[in-house]
Amino acid sequence: MGQDDVTAGAPGAGARTVEIKVPARVENLATLRAVVAAIATLEDLDLDSVSDLRLAVDEACTALIRSSLEGADLVLVVDSRDDALHINASTTSGTGSAIAPGSFGWHVMSSLVDEVLAESPRDGVDTAGVVGVTLVTRRVSYLQ
Question: Best label site of 75, 81, 133, 140, fewest CB within 10 Å?
Answer without folding.
Answer: 140
